[in-house]
Structures are given as structure tokens and as C-alpha cells.
Design brief:
six-stranded antiparallel beta sheet; 4 helices; globular; disordered C terminus
């Protein structure tokens, strides 16, 4: 996955569902506030904030957004790490959501506590940029830590 020159605001403005679009607009602000980074499109549908480099033991390496989100038709996909040490207490207070190793799925922002979400984004960003980020050729993250 690579960053593109597409405009994240234009991408969000084109989201058809009005609640999903409004939630995505709020997430643009929330992620920017929590990370201090401007949004960048990664591929056709992921809005990322910051970037990190990974390298697996297999030799595969690349770059990915440190944190981000995608306003999908079914739900909002939040690319924040749900598996690092500080995540569990935050996730237990977040509100209604589903999760995988590296994603949190939310139907609408009204279902979650935005202050907790801001804290989760900030903590995930910090963890990704300090623990997971690797310089090219340095060994990188393991497959277990790989964000999706």
C-alpha cells in the first residue's frame, strides 16, 4: 500500500451515507488532533496519519500508515492497534465496537466515547512510531505485530 496524492477531504465529501460522511469528517479532526499529523490517502480508501516502516523476518518490507481510518459502507474501520499494552483498558471504556488485532470497527461515532477514542488513537500512534517503526533493513516488526 502506498500513499497517494488524492485529497482526503474530497474523499470524505464523496461518502454517500450522510451519517458515515459526518462521522468521517469528525474522524479527520480527531485523528489530526490526536497525532499532530495531516491526513494522507493510502490506496483508494484509507486515510492515514503518519507512517512507519516494517520489515518481516521473511524479508518483506514496506511502509504503512501509523494510524488511520476508512469510512466503509458497513462500518467505520479504525486502523489503531488493539493489541498493545495500553489498548485493553481503553477498549473496555470505548463503547460499542468490534475488533481484530489491528482494527476497531464502529457502526457510528455516537456509539463510542470520543475522548476515549482520541486517547486510543494517540496511544496507538505513539506505540507504532516508537515500538513498531523500524528503519529500512533493521529487522522491522514481526508478523504478530503487523497492522492491517
Amino acid at each position: 500500500m502506498l500513499p497517494t496524492d488524492a485529497d482526503p477531504q474530497a474523499f470524505v465529501a464523496a461518502v454517500e451515507h450522510p451519517v458515515r460522511r459526518a462521522d468521517a469528517e469528525r474522524l479527520l479532526s480527531l485523528f489530526t488532533e490526536a497525532t499532530g499529523r495531516e491526513p494522507v490517502m493510502w490506496g483508494p480508501s484509507i486515510i492515514g496519519f503518519g507512517a512507519y516502516h516494517y520489515r518481516y523476518a521473511s524479508g518483506r518490507e514496506g511502509d504503512a500508515p501509523a494510524v488511520g481510518f476508512s469510512p466503509r459502507k458497513a462500518n467505520l474501520v479504525l486502523y489503531v492497534l488493539g493489541s498493545h499494552d495500553g489498548a485493553e483498558p481503553l477498549l473496555s471504556r470505548l463503547g460499542k465496537h468490534k475488533r481484530s488485532v489491528a482494527c476497531v470497527y464502529v457502526n457510528k461515532l455516537a456509539d463510542v466515547d470520543l475522548d476515549v477514542l482520541r486517547e486510543l488513537i494517540a496511544e496507538s500512534y505513539r506505540h507504532t512510531m516508537t515500538v513498531m517503526h523500524q528503519e529500512p533493513g533493521s529487522g522491522g516488526v514481526t508478523g504478530k505485530q503487523r497492522p492491517r
